[in-house]
Design a protein that fits this description.
Strand order of the largest sheet: 8-7-9-6-10-11-12-13-14-15
Number of domains: 3
CATH architecture of the largest domain: 3-Layer(aba) Sandwich
CATH class of the largest domain: Alpha Beta
CATH topology of the largest domain: UDP-N-acetylmuramoyl-L-alanine:D-glutamate ligase
Number of strands: 23
Helix content: 25-40%
CATH superfamily of the largest domain: Mur-like, catalytic domain
Structural class: alpha/beta
Number of helices: 16
Shape: globular
Radius of gyration: 24 Å
Strand content: 15-25%
Distance between the termini: 47 Å
Length: about 500
Amino acid sequence: MELSKIIKEINPDEVLNFKDVDILGISYNSNTINSHEIFVCLKGEHVDGHDFAQMAFEKGAVALMCEKPLNIEIPQLIVKSTQEKIADLSACFYHNPSRELNLIGVTGTNGKTTVTHLIQKIFEQDNKKCALIGTLGYKLSSKSEYLEAKHTTPQAPELQHTLQKILKSDILNVVTEVSSHSLEQHRVRKCKFQGAVFTNLTQDHLDFHVTMDNYFNAKAKLFEGLEEGSYAVINNDDKYAKRLIEKVPEGVEVLTYGIKNKSDLMAQDIEFTSSGVSFNCVYKDETTNIKLMLNGMFSVYNALAAIGCALKNSIALQVAKDALEKTKSVAGRFEIVCTSPLVIVDYAHTPDGLENILRAARELTPKDGSLICLFGCGGDRDATKRPKMGKIAQSLSDKIIVTSDNPRSEDPQQIITDILSGLKLINPKTVFVEPDRAEAIKMLKNLADKKDVVIVAGKGHEDYQILKDRTIHFDDREEVAKVFGVEH
């Protein structure tokens, strides 16, 4: 694309050294830039892209987008915020694919991954192709393989490129997870969403957002950006629901769902069994019984969110039911790895997420069995949730094993100490500490009887462990399978 076309579209504050060069790509990493690309000088938490502009030029950059003039003799687009304008640049370069797509965004602290997968399944049950973008990567159909993703919501150039590839694959429906980081960092700016789904809001990412109000305001941006004729599907049982509904612009349809509070779409007569959960789904004058192979109250909420989205896309409730009843667990989300004892691996890494998982697991625990929870907390992340998660684990489990979970640059023992500070009493018969996660999982062999239920929480689908000086391969599911001699 010619630089002159880009300039006309994104309207920079100033253009220096103009020459109408051909732009073949967008880069914000001087290590991976290719010839004839425009280099965007992003300011990160630890580095400033302006410091790497010369290197990018030497490696083939033919233009720069920056926040200040640089002493480099190539065209420079000067803007107030490169973080904002990289989204405009990306949308322009990839020809605004979201304008031609039915793009649905799902946001919330917990449930995003499962809800996006359920929505994809429902669309396909209705014979409509639907692509998915999220934590596990992106995939063009529920049966295709995941392609790699670096973030829950990709950076703007990758996101727009992915949307363009989806469009070129003749797929018109796309459901994507939208993280609070992506909203705060403008990654989805210039994306036209036809619908937005809100799952819940509980404590997480306060290392980034600092306060819950900031966290809420970041999530709310997805809904504030909706245009007339689009829709919002909102969990009416969440304490932030009323505030969020007030943020939705006029002309945007709102569908609420819930179990406790009167909502447009409701679940009633909920029953849990070892094979899943059943409930009556009530919408207008229609009641439909749904039997999920998923378990836990959170699965009911996730199903309602997906059904609400389906209804706003004119998909019949019966079609949604058929899709949901065929769906097994998403990778690393309440995933059963072993049945004797019942060992479940889950991504729960927030206080609310851990509580939801443990309550669901308690429903499956026999009266003569114990509920065991193995978990840790990530390093270089919100430390205030550590004692809270310790308290939750102890209050809802019979035994706990506290271990490491991506300690990063922090001392694993200090993270564990923070977790233990939330416990009422450290009884050596019910509280166990093992910083080595592999060794902690091995402890389950002697600790868990066949009738017990074990939750291995925190990492879910992740197949790595981030240590201080390196990242190693580590998959909870593989480790559990090895310990108990089952296939995975």
